[in-house]
Amino acid sequence: NAYPKHIFFIVGNEFCERFSYYGMRSVLLLYLRDYLHWDDDTSTAVYHAFTVLAYLFPLVGAIVADSYWGKYKTIIYLSVVYVFGHAVKTVGSIPYVPSQVAHAVLSMFGLFFIAVGTGGIKPCVSSFGGDQFKPGQSYIRKQFFSLFYFAINAGSLISTFVTPIFRADVNCYPNETGPEFDQCFALAFGVPGALMVVALILFIAGSRWYTIYPPEGSIFTKVCKCIYTACKNRWNTPNDVRNKEHWLEYADAPYPKLIRDTKYVLRVLVLYIPLPFFWALFDQQGSRWTLQAIQTNGYLGTLLIKPDQVEVLNPLLIVTLIPIFEATLYPFLRYFKIPFPPLRRMTVGLVLAGLSFIAAAILQIEIDKTLTPLPKSFEFGVRFINSAPCNVTFIPDNGILPDVTVQPNDAMEKQLPYKQMLLKNKLWNLCFGVEFIHFFIHRDHVYDIVSLYTIMTSPGTHGNPQRDLVVVVTSVERGKYPERPTDVLHTNRSTSIDIGYGSATITAYDKSTFGDNDETGSGGGNVVVYTTDLYLDVGGVYSIVYNNGSTGFTNLDLNPNTISVAWMIPQFLIITIGEVFLSITGLEFSYTQAPPSMKSVLTSIWLFTVSLGNIIVLIIAEAKGIEKQSDEFFLFAGLIFVAAILFVFLAYRYIPVDENEFKEEILEEMISVLGNYLAMTSPSRGQ
């Protein structure tokens, strides 16, 4: 009964593979949104389309392993595909790739190969680990599956926390400028890819000690043939001679037990009908809830929680709640004889998922109250900034837009219908959905900046020389950015810089006083042009306007994030409790209700329900028929409550299977496993 030491190669493989998968997926949505510049709905749809494929290919992997390659070769071959997908995905995220189309094409191919790899090996690794135990080692086999499940959650937990740090905090391109170099997605994808290489090496390293069984044919294909022939034969049988009790009895099955076992499987599958709605909600932790986290204040004291790190709450709560429930909740219910059978637990899990989305919707409503109103798809936004010492009235020449009067050193913004407008003999074509177009009004001049900027200047007038400025942040009390980020503002231009939140002093110097290669002040006497003290809130966007001859002023362009990310903890807690009740209980229930020959079939179909759930999200996201995110959350909550009612109805009608019916099959399976083991360990094996 010695514990097989080579099992740790399989556990290590699973840890690295789960690190690889969840690490890549944790930053995927932000990559699609911020790097490929796809909108929220498209990014969400692609994210869930990838998950659809990742949970669809377990069916393919199981069939290939059972019918052709065997589990060992399937894991090896598809792991190579997995590594190749990571390599293509990483190359696609390198900023030096010449075109945006190339980035998108490489990324989509990479995601496809990753889905094939992770999905294909998913049903093989755990069962291959179970093959390593001898008959009579059932107790330590249970220990292995506990260790295996811990490796899954440990890999998920660590990677979901660490990978966003690679994305946001590592400066991979210190000598480059531009938004494409601000985040290091290549490293965030490359590290998980490297871990998948380690996973493959670990698995191969244990090859000489593995117990490897040859493929014996896929039970899944046999079930499909059984159902197909039953339907065909029953259709071809005249009504007056149909005398069988169950339609499956018309099948051309070689063994009567296959028909019986298929009946049991179909009974359980009927219970699976509402389950895709649970996964539709559950998998939005990495998509819609990540987008929600972007709109919150990520600072907890001095600790910054990145939007793509929020998902770490799920595995953290899982590894915490499971032992707590096993030690407290379930013994408490047993002590007071309160029935809490599997189907009731699964029903509670469905309801809790709906409640978590109600919590998410309420939080989203509160977030929306604090956000700066942005133009709708049929509008554009205009911000007028007046740095002149007198009132300025903006009068469009075409008379379509209303007059706008702006006070000295003030700003005003308008949400206006899409039109063309003529301003001082210049035609401006305003596009749908443009966030804001800034018009800087300085006496007789109007300057346009098509974006939002943090630091802005306007030129000198009345004979004063126009000068480039050096902006220096001399102090930031809190935040993670360097204390002295500098930026050169060329005459009649604007720029933006990122600085940490907290109190800051921002000073502009005349660049002519600096040396050619030195912006520290050693090239001449520093002439302070403009200084302002600000308190910068997280997520706020500020315009600092300098104008020669005026003291300048500061305007808040976008409201800061005032809702703390900590308010997302309740919805994560609720849905994770729901996962414990539904997912873990559901797998246990399926295992006890399935005949021995059908356990792998039900496991594969269980994973397929995850794929169907993500298809639901994909359809709703691509429909784009819901304007408010809170309303979409309420819609999903309503859908799963309907699914819960349907599940209650199906569970009420379900008649549990008596496991004693399978005693004969269990004994046959044990004899078969013992025979295979003796054959694999006999002296003739190497001949």
UniProtKB/TrEMBL annotation:
Membrane-topology descriptor: Multi-pass membrane protein
BP terms from Gene Ontology: dipeptide import across plasma membrane; protein transport
Stored InterPro entries: MFS_trans_sf, POT_fam, PTR2_symporter_CS
Residue ranges that the Swiss-Prot or TrEMBL entry lists as coiled coil: none
Pfam families according to UniProt: PTR2 (PF00854)
Example of a GO MF term: dipeptide transmembrane transporter activity
Compartment(s): Membrane
Segments passing through the bilayer: 45-64, 76-97, 103-125, 146-166, 186-205, 264-282, 312-333, 345-365, 565-589, 601-621, 633-655
Keywords from the UniProt entry: Membrane, Peptide transport, Protein transport, Symport, Transmembrane, Transmembrane helix, Transport
GO CC terms of this entry: apical plasma membrane; plasma membrane
Principal subcellular localization: membrane
Gene3D superfamilies, alphabetized: MFS general substrate transporter like domains
Highest rank taxon of the organism: Eukaryota
Database matches in PANTHER family: OLIGOPEPTIDE TRANSPORTER-RELATED
Similarity remark: Belongs to the major facilitator superfamily. Proton-dependent oligopeptide transporter (POT/PTR) (TC 2.A.17) family.
Protein name listed in UniProt: Solute carrier family 15 member 2
Organism of provenance: Ciona intestinalis (Transparent sea squirt)
